Amino acid sequence: MLEHLxxxxxxxxxxxxxxxxxxxxCSYLAVSKKVSTAVGLGxxxxxxxxxxxxxxWLLDQYLLQDGALAWxxxxxxxxxxxxxxxxxxxxxxxxxxxxVEIVVEKFSPALYNSLGIFLPLIAVNCAIxxxxxxxxxxxxxxxxxxxxxxxxxxxxxxxxxxxIAAIREKIRYSNxxxxxxxxxxxxxxxxLMGIGFxxxxxxxxxxxxxxxxxxxxxxxxxxxxxxxxxxxxxxDKAVSYNEVLNK
Length: 247
Known about the structure:
Distance between the termini: 63 Å
Number of strands: 0
Radius of gyration: 25 Å
Shape: globular
Helix content: 55-70%
Structural class: mainly alpha
Number of domains: 2
């Protein structure tokens, strides 16, 4: 349970797709002029990430990894289809985006028209593909954690675009210096928000207990070595200080 909570909060605040790795910036800047459109696109991104990341995890575990085809028989254990990762991931994402586009057009034509070209462009949104690639690179061990990572990454992107949309609606009536109006002030606000989100990194500092399975004697030896090094450093400083005084 703790592992799920840590991944959830870390994906939203610390490893936020927008503020930590600057993915999905095109739609983040283009569709953040109104809160209503930002909410619609953010919800679509959450849905697509929540579906595609677990699906791509299954593809990676049982089809793409080196030796993933061993479940078909020992003669397939040496196959490595990892070179198909990009194609398979993008195919999954495009399928889900097409489904979202059909649903939005059917039940919310106004939102469909306001999102315009950026709704189908979710298929090539680097934040969506980045979620699956980060899942693969970080070697997330279970389907439940992959689902957690997809949902939390989507929520992080949703909060980012919702926050900047709300600020841009208010700042429209503010006295912004002419050279900074438009994208200039938006980039400045985005940078400040990124600094604020990174400050949440202190939430996951952990404790001072050694990891489970660590030999206590090894920990004690490392502490003793650290104390000895500190004493040597203090002695060296004292000697150099006395030499300066004698001179």
